[in-house]
Design brief:
Elements lengths: L4 E6 L18 H4 L1 H5 L3 H6 L1 H16 L6 H12 L3 E6 L5 H4 L7 E3 L2 E8 L5 E3 H9 L14 E5 L8 H13 L2 E5 L8 H10 L3 E5 L12 E3 L3 H13 L1
Parallel strand pairs: 1-2, 1-7, 2-3, 7-8, 8-9
Antiparallel strand pairs: 4-5, 4-6
Helix pairs in contact: 5-10, 8-9
The structure holds zinc ion.
The site of zinc ion (ZN) has 8 residues, from loops.
């Protein structure tokens, strides 16, 4: 027998304490405001330079505050470094805070990609978001690719783009194989979150939901926790190793 596998699914709620707004959830910044949603919709992004300028500006403002991992991110990284459990994180977030907290990148599946990298939509060249921000700060509001002049975007999955199928299938494998599945800071109302929770529950995993608001999966969960994530997660993960 290998070590028990703990799967931790995280949504926007885990990062709001770090100053990252909830963009795409049911109550998210983008969802509630169609003008904002355009900033993250590939069709508008590719065709409207003004959308790109505003999209870059919004990213710049979010990361200018230098968001840091909070107690919940740190508790996950600490559980992993304890070595007691095999651990994988499946996240809807693009903020890279799990990795910044010390969790090895190979243990984090980013369903919506990452805003820490930039990709050229024409040639595929990948560069760092820090470099793009430096160009913004130097007066390029919509910096083109330095290799080919193509349109750059963060390496995130925008509305209108498909999720990476290999990432999705790996997430499904983890959901089916885990012994415990934590669903943290997600309303679990949208694909693929809902499907992964259902897979884990159907496969017999213990299901623990940590979210301020009710979710459709509360009735089938083994435990539902409403307290703030930064308090709840360190306690719950601590119980796994004690
Ligand atoms: Zn290019």
């Amino acid at each position: 027998m290998g070590r028990p596998l703990v799967a931790i699914f995280t949504g926007a709620g885990i990062s709001t304490d770090s100053g990252i707004p909830d963009f795409r959830g049911p109550q998210g910044v983008w969802t509630l405001n169609p003008e904002h949603e355009k900033l993250a919709t590939i069709e508008y992004y590719m065709t409207d330079p003004d959308v790109r300028r505003r999209s870059w500006q919004m990213r710049r403002e979010t990361y200018a505050r230098d968001p840091r991992p909070n107690a919940a991110h740190r508790a996950i990284a600490e559980l992993d470094s304890s070595g007691v459990m095999a651990l994988r994180v499946i996240t809807q977030n693009t903020d890279g805070l799990h990795q910044l907290a010390g969790l090895p990148a190979r243990k984090v599946l980013e369903l919506h990609g990452t805003s820490r990298s930039v990709v050229c939509t024409a040639c595929g060249a990948r560069t760092s978001t820090e470099d793009a921000f430096a160009r913004l700060d130097a007066g390029e509001p919509d910096p083109p690719c330095l290799e080919c002049g193509g349109i750059l975007k963060t390496a995130t999955v925008m509305f209108g783009q498909n999720l990476d199928s290999s990432v999705l299938s790996e997430a499904a494998s983890i959901a089916r194989a885990c012994t415990v599945f934590f669903a943290v800071g997600s309303s679990l109302q949208v694909y693929p979150a809902a499907g992964l929770v259902a897979m884990a529950a159907d496969s017999g995993a213990r299901l623990v939901i940590v979210n301020a608001e009710p979710t459709p999966y509360d009735p089938v969960a083994d435990e539902v926790v409403r307290e703030p994530i930064g308090d709840a997660l360190p306690r719950l993960l601590g119980e796994l190793t004690s």
